[in-house]
Design brief:
Oligomer: single chain
Number of strands: 0
Number of domains: 2
Strand content: under 5%
Number of helices: 4
Structural class: mainly alpha
Order of helices and strands: HHHH
């Protein structure tokens, strides 16, 4: 059974309304500008993105420790790496 043109337009409108209700586009200009501004702030602070692959249990421990110490994960990992490298240098 074919639909009338008005029914098609009504469904198209419902689809658009639903898409708007469920959130913005991933190409939202405000979100892109925020990420760009954050990258600039990070760069000015001397931060460099550094991706590593870790075992899941280690990542879970890191998240738990960060929550316990109420630190952002970046700061916790920074501190742990610096402490480990400093202790390695003093052991020489």
């Amino acid at each position: 059974m074919t639909m009338k043109r008005t029914e098609l337009e009504k469904r198209k409108g419902l689809k658009i309304a639903s898409a708007l209700r469920h959130g913005g586009s991933r190409f939202d200009t405000a979100a892109t500008a925020d990420r760009r501004a954050q990258r600039e702030l990070d760069r000015a602070a001397g931060l460099v993105p550094f991706a590593v692959k870790l075992h899941g249990d280690l990542v879970q421990r890191l998240h738990e420790t960060a929550r316990e110490q109420q630190l952002p994960l970046n700061q916790l990992v920074d501190r742990l790496l610096r402490d480990a490298l400093d202790s390695k240098e003093t052991a020489r």
